[in-house]
Amino acid sequence: VFVLTALQSTNALYINKQLDDGQTTNAGDSFQRFAENMYKLEIIQNKIFGLKHPSAKQMIVPGNGTTHHVRRPEELPYLFQGDMILTDQQMAAVIEYAEEQLEELQRKSEDSIIPKQRTMTADLSLRWKKFPIKFILQSGVDANAILAGIRLWEENTCLTFKQVTTTANQGSMLRFIKGNGCYSYIGRISNGPQDISIGYGCTMAGIVAHEIGHALGLYHEQARYDRDSHVRVLTQNIQSGYASQFSKQPQNSIVTYGIKYDYGSVMHYPPDGFSANRRDTLETLDPNYQSTIGQRIGPSFSDVKKVNFAYCNGTCSHRLQCQYGGYTDPKDCSRCRCTEGLGGTLCGEPLRTSKNCGTLSLTATSSFKTLSQSGTGSCNFMITAPLNGKIAVQVDSLSFPKQKPCGSTFLEIRYMSDISTTGARFCGTKAKKIVSGTNKVIILYRGSHSTSFSIRYRYGTAALLNAAETSAIRTNITETSIEPQTQPPAVVTEQSTEPEKQPPTVVIEPSTEPETQPPTVVIEPSTEPQTKPPT
């Protein structure tokens, strides 16, 4: 824990300058608007959560002389969701959506669950137009951390970045500064430099990648309009005055490209974000995923996929029939880019690593089989059951350092209907019992010299596996919910060739491609010449 005094005079002037953003010559007016809007959003969000809203004096706002305790540098109390600076238009859209949510709750009618058509005053995910994206490092920043964070995006997307030494006549660009914590704008917000702060406590490559993700147009994952189908906000544990940090984005302000909610996104809040008592403020509806949310190792497969779909879908003229959520790799059009743990030209097989992991493609039978691993290295396994079968996975033993969220060592089990998104990660010693949503399960082992696991698996029908009371697998076992409350498992035997469903307000061109292919993104006209990103 470190103590942060809210916006002392120097910081207040700096944030005022950020909020001004060239829209007015009076920085004080910009700050005043932002503070008033944050207070308004706080009142609305408290009503949505059924909480007593704080007075203006209780609000954590710059200039009130309050000293407050901040656990993470990306949880700045005076910024939206802790690390984002919003333009007037973006803030207005957030407040409008919060007001609509409150109206729906107050009506309590059937009509209240039907999303309203909203008119947005601006594109909330402004795309970058010219590549490479130029950036400059101001004095005092950790250059190694910033360059490492940039590489995480360059190595996995078609995007490129170029370091420059001046902001003069450069057009749109990123300026990395050592500010008070970690924060960024959402999308490209001007034709000049825009700041990303990588301050004290922010110098991890994954945190840098998180802030760059905002600048590329990514919002926080738990702010998705469909987040209530995946996580529960524990309002009793949120610090007073921070309810607004748990607001949701309107459906037509973000584009998901049909990619499902990802617990392992680098853009997801940690489980105890903005906590008043060190207890969790977010709880996954499937408790197996509680140690998955909040990782800051690097962008997940789904994070990268969204950025590639937004910026790179014109790179390859021919699209491959990739499996299991894979898609044509914009960095190598002859191959598919596969989710972690899968490989091959079309992502149809477990990825073999340098570790001697034994057989990687496993077949479940009606009798239990055992799979175990230990020691340093990575192993990827795919378990397959007969058509229409489900797979029961019994974790008998785990030996990993206990972390929240799991760090670089863990056992990951992907058992939902979409095995391309991050699975449930386990680190510690608590055992679990799991029944899959399809006839496929992916097992990832990320180990060190002192880690190990042992599981047993078999197949059966869903009813049989869920009802089974086999004494041999109940010793010291904690049974848990195994599916999100709003997403019953679908029986999937082969990779679907149906196109993914798009959010209804997203404008795309008709496509007949399989679900793993990106739709054509329609971007607001720009006065700048567009330069196609290099492959």
TrEMBL record:
Query: Which positions in this protein are listed as binding Zn(2+)?
Result: 210, 214, 220
Keywords on this record? Disulfide bond, EGF-like domain, Glycoprotein, Hydrolase, Metal-binding, Metalloprotease, Protease, Secreted, Signal, Zinc
Q: Which InterPro entries match?
A: Astacin-like_dom, CUB_dom, MetalloPept_cat_dom_sf, Metallopeptidase_nem, Peptidase_M12A, Peptidase_Metallo, Sperma_CUB_dom_sf
Biological process GO terms, please? molting cycle, collagen and cuticulin-based cuticle; proteolysis
Instruction: Give the molecular function GO annotations.
Output: metalloendopeptidase activity; zinc ion binding
Cellular compartments per GO CC: extracellular region
Instruction: Report what the protein is called.
Output: Zinc metalloproteinase
Question: Organism source for this protein?
Answer: Parascaris univalens (Nematode worm)
